Description:
Chain A has helices spanning 2-25, 32-40, 53-63, 75-86, 94-100, 119-123, 149-153, 180-186, and strands spanning 105-109, 129-130, 138-139, 159-163. Chain A is mostly helical and 187 residues long. In chain A, the strands form two sheets. In chain A, strands 1-4 form a two-stranded antiparallel ribbon. A two-stranded antiparallel ribbon of chain A has the order 2-3. The model of chain A is unreliable at 181-187 (pLDDT under 50). Chain B is an alpha/beta fold and 511 residues long. Chain B has two domains: 9-111 and 129-324, Rossmann fold; 378-480, no CATH class. Chain B is built from 16 helices and 18 strands. Classes of the chains: A mainly alpha (187), B alpha/beta (511). At the A-B interface, helix 4 and helix 8 of A face helix 15 of B.
Amino acid sequence: MITAAASMSALGLGLGLLLGAAARKFHVETPPVVDEMESVLPGTNCGQCGYPGCRGAAEAIAEGSAPVTLCPPGGRDVALQLAEIVGVSCSGGPEISGIAETEPQVAFIFEDHCTGCTKCFKRCPTDAIVGAAKQIHTVIWDACTGCDACVQVCPTEAIVLRTRPRTLQSWYWEKPDAQRFASAGHA
Amino acid sequence: MMGAVFSSLFSRIRGGVHPETRKFLSAGCAIEPMPLPALLRVPLQQHIGAPAEPLVARDDHVLKGQLIARARGAISANLHAPTSGRVIAVGHFPAPHPSGLPVPTITIRPDGEDAWGPRMARLRPEDAGPEEIAQRVAEAGIVGMGGATFPASVKLNLRDRYRLHTLIVNAAECEPYLTCDDRLMRERAEELADGAGIMARALGVDRIVVAIEANKPEAAAAMRRHNLGLGRPIQVKVVPTQYPMGSEKHLVRAVTGRETPARALTAELGVVVHNAATAYAVHQAVRYGEPLISRVVTVSGRGVGRPANVQALIGTPVADLLEHCGGLAAEPDRLLLGGPMMGQPIENRRVPIVKGTNGILALTRAETRKPEVMPCIRCGTCVQACPCGLTPFELNARIQADDLDGAVRVGLLDCVSCGCCSYICPSNIPLVQGFSFARGRLAEKESRKHQQEETKRLAAARTAREEAIAEAKRAAMARHKAMMAEKKRRAAEEAAQAADEAAPEPREAAK
């Protein structure tokens, strides 16, 4: 009787301590959904969404004060991933289909207008601009996310965003039109 | 006879279709040389892998066979000048590709001399080691000439990683219309057999099988006459006429009866497959030191004035080849590079032929079909026809619903794009076209994902760097402050000392 009671109370005490320790060890400050969303966002803190950095944007989405389509450089893929995380239905939603149209953008520098002021070069969140003072700058397209930061700081308006040029490697056939038979039927 | 029937019964592949072969248009035409075209355009990427690096500049004079672009990286191929002449541009030109996008290209204006530069030293394959042969094949810029254009030397070096026992020379030529390999075997069987022997030596295998479809009896007879390659017996295997017999994995299935695992190399079964034209190119490179600068191209279709098999220089514009073959008899409904099943339509006739171009087809309206697409009636014919054992109608439904992951689950990545399903579909549904789209879309998604990760890495690196700079600045500032404080203290001390020294005197004076 005493042994049973002692063992039971020891067990209870032990488990209680374990739970307490676990609660301390695995304490979560923010909702995990924010971390998850932050890992999906580009992480460049470019500020195009209007929130202070990608973390701020993630918090805003978690609160419900921002749509999942807030990230222009992330494009459709990021929007879909965010929608999946927060559980927003996005199949055929007007916002999602709106950004489905946008091709990925990259910055382009008109060399005639570049004065080599290094402003864009300092501002670029992914170090995609190469240049030095009084030298014409250029953009490494593979690293550019089209975040618009450089366009805004350029004093001579020498930078524009363009759709990423297609190459043989990135080209592929268009989706065959499934609706074609309907029109053929009418004709 | 009984044996042949029996073996052909068992060497059939699953599914497949039997399109009208229409090889009679050009099968009787001997390989003919072609006069030098006015311009030659050599794209820097004619192979799978990295584009070659140009070694010539504008206004350079080049000699025939001179190396004009060097392979870059492990999977790439050298390029050589197809004839002597002047380089008039190293720039961009539309690719021989349905997109017609500009690609880096070297343009040469032939001087008409056709003067050879120094050739590579001849190699006696009987004495040369496997590495030496593979090295020579790489130097000659030889790629798989059946259309896949994978660098041949890389495939010859598979002996290090797999236990190989058989070389299959792919001479099935299952695509309708094409007869270039057929003619090559009929006219140059001895050279081809020698090339196969050289490749077998490089691979370290003793068994050579030349697989020929049953509709080319003359070619099979010619190969039987030359049944020794470098002392190794060559077995001629007649496989049934069935599309896509020439697909690497399906040919291995037909010849050895064994199936290659999904997304694996045939080398895992100990078998390596090389195209017949590749074997001929290897012979030329090893025996005569001639790089790959020309190939046999079938120019055919009802839209061509005089169908022919032409020995054409790499870089010859399609328009010149068509002109050489009597021009266009009728305005073609479709102009294709390659065969009618897997070939690629082109719009621009000024694009050049490349190492992987085995045919130019000008198909008239009667030979193509305008697909009046109808709804899927779930007849399952595509499932029966698919040589890879897939369910094309299901793949298509998932792709139309933008469910790419679902399409991958039902085997999108195992599709070889042979086009049997589209060919056989009674509703004319563009099945294989949808699969090409889906694969392109999938690759794009992958690359975007990769780019997102890279962006994150770059952004993190930048943040880390900025923090390090700020930290360094703070440290410098602190050092500077400490130094200033030290200086001040010293100055104060000195002033105090000076005051101490100066002070007694007035005191004394005061005394």
